[in-house]
Amino acid sequence: MPLYGMAKGSHSPALVLPWFERGHIRHYLQRIGNKTDVSQRITWIPEIASGLTYLHEEGILHGRLRRERVLVSDEGVAQLTDVTIIPFQEQRASEIIPWKDTGERWVAPEVSLGAQETLSSDVFSFALLGIEIFTAEVPFPDLHSFIVSAYVTQGVQPNRPISMPDKVWELMKQCWNLDPQQRPSMSHIVHALHECTTL
User: Which residues belong to the signal peptide in this entry (predicted)?
Assistant: First the structure.
């Protein structure tokens, strides 16, 4: 998304970004209910993947990916937001990192166990976001976040959404590998998504 400028606040500078009338995907899905067809939801996944690939190629982690961090433009395009930069005036671009969040439900298992966030942990969260988009529910909706963390570190994966195509589901499962080194890169994911005949 374009950066319009920067505003100086009382504590730290703020980025000036476009206003998205449709809001983020969670509110958008709640507002329109089942009116969003499967093809629209499938379209959002490679759009999000492309945005995340761009960040990763610039050496930037997102770090807190979920539905609330994805906005829907007037044209219906999904765009990433909330990559908080701290303190960017003192760091090189390669050192920009997102602000740490406490969304245990979306955190990769190695991060839950104390490891630092990596590009691979973003990949794990991306796949959970894919489930959210298809179900309009958080991952493991019947479980408390802390219980989800324990389940995920044991390799438990979300149930497959009925409407999710086979190839997309298989790709999501690769992203949940307990070994971060075995997860695909976001650039590979973008390529694989564009090869899916259902997209």
Answer: none
